[in-house]
Fold this protein.
Amino acid sequence: MSNGLSESALRLLPAAGQQLRCASHAHSINTDPCGNALFIDALVLVEVPLPWPKPVFKHPLLQQFTSMATTSLGSTRVLAAVPSGTQPGIRVIVYQRDKIGVQSWGFRPTDPTELARFANQIKSTHPAELDITRDSIHPPEIAVLICTQGSHDVCCGSAGTKLASDLEMQAPGLAIFRVSHTGGHRFAPTALTIPDGRMWAYLDTQSMLSILELSGDAKDLSKYCRGWWGAPSGPGQVAERAVFEQMGWDMDLMPREVWANKTATGWTVTLSVALENWTVEIIQGRQIPTITCRAEGGLPAKPAYEYTVTSVNSPT
């Protein structure tokens, strides 16, 4: 079943007898991962002991939460995280996107009732007024969130877990959160970095370390970028990445906003970076198949599209 794939996309499918993992296939056809990152104001991590069900929100600790919600923090994504603290109990950690970087705080619920109360109150109550037990949790200022949920997808479960383990060995002391499904498992291993709020794909240990250390060339490493969490999904994130390629790592130290407008031929995206406007023109790129993981010939497959940058106009 090809579900309306074009002739060019059909030619990108695995051979009839092949049973490829979706991440291996996406990498093999050079799928551009940009444009499908989270577009959110805040991220809530709830430490949940393994094993995790699919979906993870069937877990008793998460039944009062939903994956995406509008809360007092804005558009909020909730993720489970493997407990990593040295103290007993679980933690709740919040990262809220700021003009530059993030604001962060956390607490340790005394029991499931307090966790459920937090899930309900945060919908409308400012964090400073929440009825929670405050403690001295200070979330790490630099952190990596790696999708490792094998119950959701084998690609993240295997490749994500390996990346997390390798990073723990090569960068002791780095805050690494093994988290539930963040989307885009066909780009595994995937990660989100804090405080910049960028999402990444097709990672290996060396590329991840170069990103964290800001030691690699931003233009070279941008091929791993799925998008920035402050830009609208699709053309907005692709345009933001195009400007990031030109400005480099300093861009993540500047306030910015992104607006995407549909045109007759594609999209015009305006980026305000440190109060200076960039304009990026985007058109729809090639159609590609999103295959069914480990199914013969990758079928059934769904159509997806990449985006192509046609021009980047910097401030005059």
In short: The first strand starts at residue 42 and ends at 47. The mean pLDDT is 95. The chain has two domains: 7-37+142-313, 42-129.
